[in-house]
Design brief:
Two copies of one chain form a homodimer.
Chain A (H helix, E strand, L loop, with lengths): L6 E6 L3 H12 L1 H8 L3 E7 L16 E2 L3 H4 L6 E4 L7 H10 L3 E4 L2 H17 L4 E2 L11 H7 L5 E7 L2 H13 L3 H10 L8 H4 L2 H15 L9 E2 L7 H9 L2 E12 L2 E12 L11 E8 L3 E8 L3 H27 L29 E11 L4 H10 L5 E10 L4 E8 L2 E2 H13 L3 E10 L2
Helix pairs in contact in A: 1-12, 4-5, 5-10, 7-8, 13-14
Chain lengths: 445, 445
C-alpha cells in the first residue's frame, strides 16, 4: 500500500462543512487509506481569506484564493465542492468535470438546478459527480435509493428534510410557542440563519425534493416544478387542534407517481401521531420511501451539521477514490482512457414524465376559519363545500369570542380535489359571515 | 443492448422467498435489463418436487432436482441461494464460488456461521458473495453500512431484527395478551413457525447481529459470541410496569465497541417510550447505527416477507450483473481473467477484536420479584444489592396478595455490573422472604 501513488484531493470552501471535511481527511487519513487501499493527499483548499484563523490545524501552504490552483492542477483527481450557493460553485464543478476530475459536492442548489446536465458532462469525461451529502446530511439516502432499491418501482416519498423548520415546528407543538418565538429560538441556537427565508419558505426542502424525485423516478424534476408553501402562517391554534385530532404538523416534502405523472410538493401537513414521521422531532430528518417490492422503508438521522455532512462527503470521496484506483490499474494494464468507463455511473435513462399541477391534487384538508357567531353559519359554509362535492368528515366549533361575536370553526374534509377546495375558499371568503380563513392545511396518511 | 449476450442466473430454492425472486426476475425482466444494460436469463431453478404446482408461471424445463445443473453450468454466472438452513446451502454456495460464479443469498445462518471463509473464497475466485437480504429483509442495510458510512468509526448498533418477536411483544404491550396467546396468534397469522424456537429464543436475531457486527466493526463475530436470551419469560405484569415507568419492552440486538472490545447481545430490554425504536411495532424491523461522524442513523422497514426480501436479493443480483458485464468488457479488451479483480470487494481487513463476556456488561436493570408481605423485606433486598454497590433508582411495591401474604416488588437500578447483579440475585434467592425472582430485564437508553 505504501508504495502506491496517493490520490490528490482539492477542497473548495472551508466553512462549517468544509472544516469538518478537512478535519476528517487529516485526522482519519490512515483509516481512510486502509479502506481505500491508497492514501488521500489533501493538496489545496480554496478559501476566501488567507489570514482567517482556522479551527482545523492545517499547513498554511494548502490555502489558496485561486480556484484554478485546484481546478487546473493535474495532481488533483478529486474535487470537493462545499462553497454552497449556485454560482460560482456550479461553474467550478463544471470545469472540474471537464478537466477529468471526480467531483463530490453537498450543494443541493447546484444539483437541483443543474444536476442532470452536470452528470452528463461527468459521463462524457469518464468521471463521476457524487452528491450524497446534498440531501439528508449524513443519512445514506441516494446510495440505498439507487443501489439498494433498484428492483423497485418507487411510488412515493414522504420526507422531513429541513431540520430548521422541523425544530421550529417541534417547539411550537411541544411548548405551544408562536412561530416568531420559535424562529427566534432557532436563530439564537444557530439552527436558523438570520435570514431564514430559504428554510421557512420551503426553498431548501424543494431543492432536496427535486434531487430525490429525480433519482427515484428517473425523470428530471426541477426546483420550479415543486409546489411550495412555507410554515410562517402556522399558529398556536393549529397545533392545538392538530393535537385534539391526533395529528402532528410537519413540513413534508412529498413526491408521488400517480398515473405516470409526478406530484412534487413541499407544505405543512397534518400527519397522524402514530406515523413514525410524526415522531421525528428537533433538527432530525426522516425520509420514507415506498416501493412495490420493499413496501415502506424509512431512513432517519441528522440532516445537517459539520460532521454528519462530512460523513456523507467522505463516503463519496472513498467511492471516487476507489474508482480512480481501478482506472489507474486498468491504465497500467494497457487500457486507454477512452476504453475505461467510469465505475460509478447511472445506467437509468432519464424519462420525461409530466409534472402534475397542484390543482389536480386529491387530498384531505384541515380548514380553520373565524366566523360570525350566529345561526346558520355552518350551513352556509357546508353548502360552499358541498356544491363542489367536498364532504366534511368532522367539525369543531370553539373559542367563541363574545365581545367580537365571532367563533372559530375547524373543518376536516374527506379527500377532495385541490382546485375545488380553492374555489370553495374563494366563495367562503365572500360570505359576510366568514370573518377570516385562518389556515388551510393538507392532511396526509 | 439487445445485441449483448444475456447473463445467466440460477435460482436454488423456490419457497416463499424464491417464488418472489422468480416472479420479480420474470415480471420485471425488461426494467432490470434497462437498469443493468443487459438481460438476465433465468436458466434453472432447483426445487425439491417437480410436480408441485407453482404460483409463478414459469416454463417447467426450468425446474431441476439436481443442484449440479446450476452449480456446474458455465452458462450461469449468478447463483441465487434461497434454500435456507446451514446445509446443503453452505456447500452449494462454496461450490458456486469455486466455480467462479457470483452468489447472492438471503441465508443468515450460512453467512453468520461461514461468511468470512466464503468471502475469502469469493475473493480468491474473482467473484463476490452478496447477502444484503440476510439482515433486515428489504431494508438496505449492509450497503449503507459499508458504502454509506465508511468514514465513520461505528460505536454501537441497536436493532429490532426479528419481526416475529416484535409482533408478539407489540401484541403483549398493546393488548395485554399473555406470551402463549400472542405466540399462538402470530402462528395463526403465519408470522411465526409452528416450531418458533429460532425466533423466540433469539437465535435468528443472533445470526443477524453477528452479520451486522462483523460488517460494522471489521472483526469476525460468530453467532456463538452473541449472548442470547429469549422472550418466553416475559409476563403481562412486566408490560404493565414498563408502561407505568414509561418504557416499551423490545427484543433488542445490541452490538457495541467498548474500549476496543465487542459487546454483542440479544435479549428483551426496556426502551424509553420516546425512543424511535420503542415505536417500531408489529413485524417491522429497525436498525439504529451510531458513528463518530454521522451520530445516530436509523433504518426502518419490513424485515421479512417474499417481496421485501426479493427487493434486497434482486438489488444484489443487479450489482453482481453489473460486475459481470464490466468483467466481460475488460476481457473483450484483452485483459486476462487474473488481471481483472472483482468489482465489488471489501477492502477492510478483518481485525481480531476481543468479545466482552456478558458478566462485564454495565447497564441498568428492572427486577421484579414476589416477596413475603412482612416488614423489613425491602431492607434485606436493598442490602443484597447495596453490598455489591448496586444502587436503586426506584421501587414500586404493589399487588399485595393477602391470602398468600405475598407482595410484588419492582426495582429499577442505576448502572451496575452484570456479574454483581447476578451475585445479588443468587443471594436474594436464598432469602426466606423472597418467594420468587420473576424477571430481570436490562434497561437501555
Amino acid at each position: 500500500m505504501a508504495d502506491r501513488e496517493s490520490i490528490g484531493v482539492g477542497l473548495m470552501g472551508l466553512g462549517v462543512v468544509g472544516s469538518g471535511v478537512a478535519r476528517t481527511l487529516v485526522e482519519k487519513n490512515r483509516a481512510l487509506a486502509e479502506e481505500i487501499g491508497c492514501r488521500l493527499a489533501l493538496k489545496k483548499i480554496l478559501v476566501r481569506d488567507l489570514s482567517k484563523p482556522r479551527a482545523v490545524s492545517l499547513e498554511s501552504p494548502l490555502f489558496t484564493l485561486d480556484p484554478q490552483q485546484i481546478l487546473s492542477d493535474p495532481a488533483i483527481q478529486i474535487v470537493i465542492e462545499v462553497i454552497g450557493g449556485e454560482q460560482p460553485a456550479a461553474a467550478f464543478i463544471k470545469q472540474a468535470l471537464l478537466n477529468g476530475k471526480y467531483v463530490v459536492t453537498a450543494n443541493k442548489e447546484v444539483i437541483a438546478k443543474h444536476g442532470p446536465e452536470l452528470m452528463e458532462i461527468a459521463q462524457q469525461n469518464g468521471v463521476s459527480l457524487l452528491y450524497e451529502a446534498s440531501v439528508g446530511g449524513g443519512i445514506p439516502l441516494l446510495l440505498p435509493l439507487k443501489q439498494g432499491l433498484p428492483a423497485n418501482e418507487i411510488s412515493a416519498i414522504y420526507a422531513i428534510i429541513n431540520g430548521t423548520t422541523n425544530y421550529i415546528l417541534t417547539k411550537m407543538s411541544a411548548e405551544g410557542l408562536s412561530f416568531p418565538t420559535a424562529l427566534k429560538q432557532a436563530q439564537e441556537l444557530g439552527y436558523a440563519e438570520p435570514d431564514a427565508a430559504n428554510d421557512i419558505e420551503g426553498i431548501d426542502a424543494a431543492y432536496k425534493l427535486a434531487i430525490l424525485a429525480t433519482a427515484a423516478f428517473h425523470t428530471i424534476v426541477r426546483p420550479e416544478d415543486v409546489f411550495r408553501q412555507g410554515i410562517a402562517r402556522l399558529a398556536e391554534h393549529d397545533f392545538r387542534y392538530a393535537k385534539e385530532l391526533d395529528y402532528e404538523i410537519k413540513l413534508l416534502a412529498i413526491a408521488k407517481k400517480v398515473n405516470g405523472a409526478i406530484e412534487v410538493r413541499v407544505h405543512p401537513a397534518f400527519v397522524p401521531t402514530d406515523f413514525l414521521l410524526a415522531k421525528v422531532s428537533g433538527v432530525y430528518n426522516a425520509i420514507q420511501i415506498e416501493g412495490d417490492l420493499v413496501g415502506k422503508v424509512l431512513f432517519y438521522g441528522e440532516g445537517a451539521g459539520s460532521l454528519p455532512t462530512s460523513s456523507a462527503i467522505v463516503a463519496d470521496v472513498i467511492a471516487a477514490a476507489k474508482s480512480v484506483i481501478q482506472q489507474r490499474e486498468l491504465g497500467a494494464k494497457g487500457l486507454s482512457r477512452s476504453a475505461r468507463s467510469p465505475l460509478i455511473a447511472s445506467h437509468s435513462p432519464f424519462l420525461a414524465l409530466a409534472i402534475k399541477p397542484i390543482s389536480e391534487l386529491q387530498t384531505r384538508y384541515y380548514l380553520r376559519m373565524s366566523v360570525a357567531d350566529s345561526p346558520g353559519v355552518l350551513a352556509q359554509i357546508a353548502r360552499a363545500l358541498g356544491d363542489r362535492s367536498i364532504s366534511i368528515s368532522s367539525v369543531i366549533q370553539k373559542e367563541t369570542d363574545t365581545d367580537a361575536q365571532t367563533a372559530e370553526i375547524v373543518i376536516m374534509t374527506h379527500p377532495a380535489r385541490e382546485e375545488f377546495m380553492r374555489q370553495a375558499l374563494e366563495e367562503m371568503e365572500k360570505l359576510p359571515v366568514v370573518k377570516e380563513i385562518c389556515n388551510l392545511i393538507r392532511v396526509e396518511g
